[in-house]
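ENTRY TYPE: protein
WANTED: fold as tokens:
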Amino acid sequence: MDKVGAFTVPVIICFIIIFGLVRRVDVFDEFKKGFVDGIYSLWSVVPSIAGLVIGVNMLSASGFFDTISFLLSPVCELIGIPSQVIPLGLIRPVSGSGATAVLSSILETYGADSLIGKTASVMAGSTETTFYTIAVYFGAAGIRKTRHTIPAALCADIAGIAGACIITSFLC
């Protein structure tokens, strides 16, 4: 099976080149155009990503997420959300790598088979890095006004968090 994986990408590349030659397309010229377009897209997205990364690091270093988690924990416990997963719910819409670090910490502390570990895992899988995604895609498309995108996406994240807590409490 390892050999299949090792040959998959080269076979696909060869298929694309042969397909282009059969269609009489200048494959290398199209590759250069695609490369230039990719660099342009990267260049247009970098400021959004840099701002997002700086903001997340500032919030984390200042203790903002810890303070909000502490303030929300009584309310979350009342509605059935384990207080241990609140930091994951707060950081997930903002930072995928930060959320992965928080999830890893939760799994190390409470175990993957615990209710908290399962809730955190389902929560990580059913929510999105909303602000990162919006920054990348809207930045690449040149869209400056997000209108209803952020509130709708955050509602979806809240539904994912609530659903993760409800489903895992019933199934575990």
Notes: Helices lie at 2-22, 27-62, 64-78, 86-91, 96-110, 115-126, 130-141, 149-171.
